[in-house]
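> call design_seq(struct)
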């Protein structure tokens, strides 16, 4: 059974289509969107080995001419060099303005494919087929695309919306456990910032650290409610003029941790988990929310098998320096998204540096 969530935007609204076994309907889903004849599928070797054949066969059966660009897996390859490789294939096969790029992969592939689509011939069609939990609930929805700069995460990019997001939960069966846990970080985020009901549902589940411990109903709720939360926020604020910044809950310190560990020690979801713990503690210090709430949040993060401490050996001064290069810095002040109750957060740039340092010191690995 398919559920469809509409992302309503002034210029280009689109659907998030969620259904088990829907990957082999990709061509059919795309054929009604006037996407042109040429399609470039961008993926990584691991995902392509599992799902490339199904996606390509489906697109070809719908009458598309299909080409491929396979990029190395991993956040450290999310660079302008990889974008150049996509451009080279697009040029080789003469992709036109009516052509389409399909991202078949996790958040890294989605971000890069979207940015390449946004900038090739000043913008061509783009379809998201996320293959990780993190990409399904977060990265594939909302139109944020881009790559990393050596000095910081996602500093180069564009807002560019897909024409369609196709989510097939069956794909998660081949997802490594660590990647599943990374996705749960973003799901917990939605519970804290937007949906107290989702938060409570996760509290009732005995385990959240592996997909096999989630009943099918909870997984369906996680996908639907997370995508709905993201769609609601993006519909109200497409380009992060205000409200959309709440989607960065846990990401301020999280991004700094990722950058300082070279995108090799912790993955994005693990960094967000650490960042949410830090944000919760900062909120307690500033008396924005209570100790019980932060304990409930941290218990969920632990239940999902995510870290709650900083990686060993991380320099607190270096974290402070990286925070100043964050995209959310305004007039030299770091903006934090901080919780006030489960399901509600506030945006503030009035977090004293000594409070940040004190919380980070508390979170240093023993």
């Amino acid at each position: 059974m398919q559920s469809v969530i509409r992302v309503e935007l002034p210029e280009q609204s689109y659907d998030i289509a969620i259904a088990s076994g829907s990957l082999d309907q990709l061509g059919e889903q795309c054929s009604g969107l006037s996407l042109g004849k040429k399609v470039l599928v961008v993926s990584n070797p691991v995902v392509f080995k599992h799902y490339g054949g199904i996606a390509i066969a489906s697109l070809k059966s719908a009458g598309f001419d299909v080409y491929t660009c396979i990029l190395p897996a991993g956040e450290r390859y999310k660079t302008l060099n990889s974008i150049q490789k996509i451009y080279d294939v697009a040029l080789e096969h003469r992709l036109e303005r009516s052509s389409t790029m399909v991202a078949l992969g996790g958040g890294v592939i989605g971000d890069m494919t979207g940015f390449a689509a946004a900038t090739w011939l000043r913008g061509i069609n783009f379809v998201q087929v996320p293959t990780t939990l993190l990409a399904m609930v977060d990265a594939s929805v909302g139109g944020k695309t881009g790559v990393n700069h050596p000095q910081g995460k996602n500093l180069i990019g564009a807002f560019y919306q897909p024409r369609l997001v196709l989510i097939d939960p069956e794909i998660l069966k081949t997802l490594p456990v660590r990647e599943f846990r990374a996705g749960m970080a973003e799901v917990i985020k939605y519970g804290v910032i937007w949906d107290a009901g989702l938060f409570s549902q996760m509290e009732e589940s005995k385990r959240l650290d592996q997909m096999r411990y989630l009943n099918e109903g909870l997984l369906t709720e996680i996908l639907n409610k997370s995508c709905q939360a993201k769609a609601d926020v993006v519909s109200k604020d497409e380009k992060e003029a205000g409200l959309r910044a709440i989607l960065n809950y846990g990401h301020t310190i999280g991004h700094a941790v990722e950058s300082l560990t070279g995108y090799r020690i912790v993955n994005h979801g693990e960094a967000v988990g650490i960042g949410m713990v830090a944000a919760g503690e900062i909120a307690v210090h500033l008396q924005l929310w209570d100790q019980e709430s932060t304990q409930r949040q941290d218990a969920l993060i632990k239940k999902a098998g995510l870290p709650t401490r900083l990686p060993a050996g991380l320099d607190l001064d270096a974290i402070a320096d990286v925070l100043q290069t964050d995209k959310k810095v305004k007039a030299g002040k770091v903006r934090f998204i901080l919780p006030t109750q489960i399901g509600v957060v506030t945006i503030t740039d009035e977090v004293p540096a000594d409070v940040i340092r004190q919380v980070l010191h508390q979170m240093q690995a023993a």
